[in-house]
Amino acid sequence: MSIPEFAKKILITVKCKVDEVRKSHPDRPIFMIGWGTGAILAATVSVSKDVDGVIAIGFPLLGLSGPRGSHDLEDPILNMKRPTIFVVGGRATDCNITEMELLRKQLNCETSMVIIGCGDHNLRVSRYHREKLLVTQSYIDKCIVDEIKNFINLHSNHSQVLSVSKSEKLSKKPSKKNTILL
After folding, report:
1. How far apart are CA 182 and CA 170, in angstroms?
2. Which domain does 132 fall in, by range?
3. What is this structure's pTM?
4. Within a domain: 17
């Protein structure tokens, strides 16, 4: 099985699982969450499935063909309509903050971005920076979890989201919010 075939199979499996969960729990919120390439999968699934939001941790913006959402690529995540929070390291080698802002401007959905200023692609902060800032990695991780929790609490009213008419959704301009930790 080739890598693209395997990726397509994973995408189909996740979409079926979302349908199964939505059918068995129609009034409960569903959030897609992924880390690294799993964040790309979560974002892609949210384009075609009824989910309440996307939590993209360690989002790898840069790929072999350049940054996601660039004009040369037909990127499915440009069609995202669900609220999304991106959690990225400020020093990640696979995610340039400026390019990430350009991608967010292209998205027609509410987005938030949490930037771990001294963090790498795994959101880890070096010992030097932790000592300089007088924090622990556990504290940093707790701050990340708190931001995600706030995002979920803000967007977890599934029945209210479904009751808003399409014209009301279209009339609202998607908001963009940044939080910088460290």
Report:
1. 35
2. 29-181
3. 0.86
4. no
